[in-house]
Structures are given as structure tokens and as C-alpha cells.
């Protein structure tokens, strides 16, 4: 479902938060198009927090990498990274209005970033919106191998530790499928969303300096609980 906002209502941070509670999110046709439209996919991607698959090679990389993970230190550079062109994608849907809206949500404490750094160089990361026990992933990027994957694993561990119930990925991609992303129909997604919104969660329950082994332990323990 999509509707152009220029024939609807002005999108403010408060309207955007309300939209998330209804299961919809905004996009633009391109970075140069100032208009936004609402998206409500018929089928929605989610990454179940109790059964995240961590490929063995990636687990080894996470333990040994020199890359460092930070949280909420540079929203503008993360959005820049997500908006940049890359192989197979020359254009982006992130326009100036998207940048402004999510920067405003960041200032309100609802938008968060997980960033992967090589020294003083941002090499990967993601951003999304936290609302009660739901986290809505918006976009991710990587300038070095595995940089966005490392950020995603740190995000998942942070959400699990903070008692989140839902990690919305919007769509299912090959990149996300390797971690166990599944597709829900609209009715199933709304049930999961309702449960998550009724849950109190804390994005900062996990220390900001969480170490790689702690991240892997949290993910493993969540999977073990599911198997019992």
C-alpha cells in the first residue's frame, strides 16, 4: 500500500512514530524526489530474536576483527553511508526529508545507530527506530567486508538483552536471509507488532562497550532457550 503524502498530511516525527505503530513506513522514489509515500508490504520481513543464525565464519570474524562497534555517535554519517551508491545500486530512496525526519527522531531518542569503525573511519552500520519492544530496521551499509553484518549482530544482541520482542527488517533479502530472516503476512506481522508495542524494553540495557564474545553468548543463549 502506498500513498503520496502531498495529498495527505504533513509528516512530522510524531506522525512517523504513529505510522510505525500502524505497521507502515515512509519511502521516496529517489534522493532527488522531495515527496514521500507510505509503504505497508503485503509480506513483511522480520528477524526472529530467538533464533538468529550466525554463520561460523562470521562468528570467527566477530571474535578476531580489529573493527570496533559504537552506538549512536554519528547519525548523519550513518545515513550518508546508507544513502550512498554501491555496486548494483546507483540510486537511493533516502532524500532530504527522510534525513531530517530520522535526525529528529534521533534527537528525540527513538532513532538509533549501530556503527562499525576502523579507527576514525566509519566503515559500516545501520539505523532504525525503537518503539517500546519493537525495533524497525531502516537501512544498512558496508564499506568493508562484514562491517554491516557485525553491526547487525551487535544490534540483535542489544535487542535481546533489552527485552525487545520484534526486529522488523521490512523485506527479506538474500543478505538478511542468511541470519534467519522470515516473512510474515500482514495479519501475522500486526499480531507480532501489537505484542511488541505492549512490551517495555531498554535499548541501552547492554553496555555500550559490549565485547564480541558477550554478543555471541547472548545470541547463543537466546537460541538455546528457543530449543528447550
From TrEMBL:
Chain's role: Functions in the N-end rule pathway of protein degradation where it conjugates Leu, Phe and, less efficiently, Met from aminoacyl-tRNAs to the N-termini of proteins containing an N-terminal arginine or lysine.
SUPFAM superfamilies from the UniProt entry: Acyl-CoA N-acyltransferases (Nat)
Protein species of origin: Hyphomicrobium sulfonivorans
GO molecular function: leucyl-tRNA--protein transferase activity
PANTHER family for the chain: LEUCYL/PHENYLALANYL-TRNA--PROTEIN TRANSFERASE, LEUCYL_PHENYLALANYL-TRNA--PROTEIN TRANSFERASE
Sequence similarity: Belongs to the L/F-transferase family.
GO biological process: protein catabolic process
NCBIfam families: aat (TIGR00667)
Listed EC numbers: 2.3.2.6
A Pfam family assignment: Leu_Phe_trans
Catalytic activity: L-phenylalanyl-tRNA(Phe) + an N-terminal L-alpha-aminoacyl-[protein] = an N-terminal L-phenylalanyl-L-alpha-aminoacyl-[protein] + tRNA(Phe); N-terminal L-lysyl-[protein] + L-leucyl-tRNA(Leu) = N-terminal L-leucyl-L-lysyl-[protein] + tRNA(Leu) + H(+); N-terminal L-arginyl-[protein] + L-leucyl-tRNA(Leu) = N-terminal L-leucyl-L-arginyl-[protein] + tRNA(Leu) + H(+)
GO cellular component term, pick one: cytoplasm
Record protein name field: Leucyl/phenylalanyl-tRNA--protein transferase
Subcellular location: Cytoplasm
Keywords: Acyltransferase, Cytoplasm, Transferase
UniProt cross-references to InterPro entries, sorted A to Z: Acyl_CoA_acyltransferase, Leu/Phe-tRNA_Trfase, Leu/Phe-tRNA_Trfase_C
